[in-house]
Amino acid sequence: MAATAPPPELQERPRAADSLSWDRFGLPVIASRMFTLIGSVVVLLCVCGSFLMEGGSLLLLWHPGEVIIIVGSAFGAFVTSNPIKVVKGSFAAALGLVKRPRYKREDYVDLLKLLYDVLVKIRKSGMLAIEADIEQPANSKLFTDYPRIMADHHMIEFITDCLRLIVGGNLDPHELESLLEYELETHHQEAQQPAHAVQRVADALPGFGIVAAVLGIVDTMASIDGADTGTIGRKVGAALVGTFLGILIAYGFVGPIAAAIEHRVHEEGKAFEVVKMALVASVRGYAPPVAVEFARKLLWSDVRPTFADLEHHLKGKKREPQKEKESVPA
Question: Are 316 and 10 in contact (CB under 8 A)?
């Protein structure tokens, strides 16, 4: 008997193009990514628009010297205080905010299906049956059936390392869970370094704004003798722009970017926790469907497949060989 079609509420949403996917809230993923840019545009529009509404001119805020003092000094301090790996990672993480998240709902479904296949093979054929798969995952059909997971080499390395421990380590569930928790803690700390580095820059920017303002006041005081009121006013205004820019860049742009990077790290780290939970549950003796269900429960609500949806994917996968077998004429 052929596999039955999923109920209408579980069927995939029609797509305008294969590359267009949808999040849990019915928005295209590309629209969700645009919110990162939209927030920054809103900050600029509100600040500059209000200033213009009060009769100001944007040229009054344009002082390249102040920008160089604030941005240049902050960048220099950023480079001085962080290793080159964190500097590169910070720029990569900031640019990555406008890209697709590494794991969306369909990717988690693939990850859970991969874990299910691995655990079923272990239960049916024994631990040693997957030794060749974990040594050469690129040549293993068990892994290559899921190209989106294979594209994340960190995830594949984590899965295969965990399976090596299970196959050859002879660890009890508590020892395995403790070891994996230590590994995940180290991974999360390393992944959060760019966010912390960017946040420290945000904390320092108001101080550099004050430095620019003080230097502007010093220049004003040096030329106060014989200067008219208009000249002094322009110089004091230019000095105050330094304080304004330091605070605006810190709280309007750099701070939110640091927070967004941290959120992205937490989202992407959840995939590793899913793998840990499934493998530990399996070592504790739970059947593959139950172990995968334990892992599913860890996912955030916006990317978590429903129980019925995941069950359909798993059962549909199991029915495929049956369908092929029945199609062979007697």
Answer: no
